[in-house]
Amino acid sequence: MFSHAIVRPPGRNFAAGLTTSTLGAPDLDRALLQHERYCGALEELGLTLTRLPADERFPDSTFVEDTAVLTRACAILTRPGAPSRAGEVIGSARALVKHFGRLEIIRPPGTVDGGDICDADGHFFIGLSERTDEAGAANLARVLEGLGHTSSVVDIRGVPGILHLKSGMSYVGEGRIVAIGALASHEAFRRYTLLPVAEEEAYAANCVRVNGAVLLPAGFPKLERTLAEAGYATVLLDMSEFQKMDGGLSCLSLRF
Ligand code: CIR
Asked: What domains lie within the chain, and their CATH numbers?
């Protein structure tokens, strides 16, 4: 169960962030509205929000999830793989220190983006990507081990179309993983029940279980049905403006 989340709305220069998407420039007013609805959904599910102010020094800073990996006992501050995002971590650290008695850090030269890290009930999948490198993955695995957690590495560097591991898969609880076809047969997920994502719905593979519900991007009816058939309540959120900046639903919050 989560009781808190940290969020940060997009700033006026949101469109200047990093993206590989060809969907066009995001509309800031719509992005702000979508962000507000996202926050409202978290609050409806019982979470207390820490709302950080928009930070225009960092156009990607609304994607707070990339700045930390959270366990029950500890907040692990990342070293984001994109140089333009490195400075985002300090803002998250200031907020996290109020809630976590223990803080760890990823040390140079390794890099880790939180979007590459998936917590499956205390076992962590660590994506190796353009952003999370081998040194960062090894550093994180060591820190997690010291905290009593296990982890396994999932190399996504050959998987086209996904920025982070969680752009292509999510853990939704009860031993179930939502995954795109390219990840579904990965050895690391062998012991899990797979809920497949249709190719044309790949963006929705990034969904988030929050307490009694799964937050899911709106407009992906096949996955919505799959989740409903598996017994999940879903909350649909319009994510179009964040998708334009390569952002998934999970990356808009740090939940604990
Ligand atoms: C970036 O390229 O870093 C941002 N435009 C998007 C980050 C999305 N983060 C995530 O999915 N965890």
From this structure: 4-255 (3.75.10.10)
